[in-house]
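Re: that backbone. Tokens:
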């Protein structure tokens, strides 16, 4: 008979596949960026259409970005930051040494 696999086991196997961890990390980053932009937009009381106009984008592109559905390029991030009167900061920092 078939044994059932738990979600944790399945997730672990999938993430062990070549390229899966990198794709998962890219998706996480896209989601976090989208969430941050959506929060800034909502804090200003703007609709997606208003942000899109200010950033020279379409409303559907803003919606996809906010949902984490696309991994943005640096020029797109710059346009969104400029439209939101925000500073785009891209940095690479060393990790803390292992104890």
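Recovered sequence:
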């Amino acid at each position: 008979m078939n044994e059932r696999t738990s979600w944790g086991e399945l997730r672990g196997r999938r993430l062990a596949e070549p390229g899966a961890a990198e794709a998962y990390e890219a998706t996480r980053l896209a989601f976090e960026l989208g969430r941050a932009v959506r929060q800034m937009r909502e804090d200003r009381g703007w609709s997606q259409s208003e942000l899109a106009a200010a950033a020279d984008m379409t409303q559907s592109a803003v919606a996809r970005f906010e949902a984490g559905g696309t991994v943005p390029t640096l020029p797109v991030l710059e346009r969104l930051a400029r439209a939101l009167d925000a500073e785009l900061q891209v940095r690479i920092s060393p990790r803390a040494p292992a104890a």
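The chain has a mean pLDDT of 90. Residues 18-83 form a domain with the 434 Repressor (Amino-terminal Domain) fold (CATH 1.10.260.40).
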